[in-house]
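Lab notebook, bench 4. The sequencing result for the construct came back, and we need a structural model before the next group meeting so we can plan mutations. Quick request posted to the team channel:

Model the 3D structure of this chain.
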Amino acid sequence: MSITETAPQAQGKIVAIQTILASAANWRQAMAKKYATDVRNSHAAKLLHALANEMVVLPDHLITELDACHGIGAAAKDTARRVGFSLFPASLLEFVYSVLLHVAEQRADIDAVFPAGERSQ
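Done. Here's the predicted structure in token form:
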């Protein structure tokens, strides 16, 4: 499915992720100027810009998962910070999968501390 064919909520989340990637790329460019000897920032900025500008085709199962996902913005920001340092996604689709994995890990951490039965009390 192309971005224009996705569910409106999922489409909005994809655009938000691309905006977060563009913002992270701009920040990395600033860091590349500030720390000119650390080439990771300039490489990360290029990768982030490429991801932010990529046209994405999402499989139906991913659209469903994005539609149901809460807290994706914070997870996308956390994941974007890692790009070019410990994460090297080859595509926007791969980045989205990394974001969803991050959301799942956060959910598991919360569930470990606050089991479902305890949260409703």
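The longest helix spans residues 8-34.
Will bring this to the meeting.
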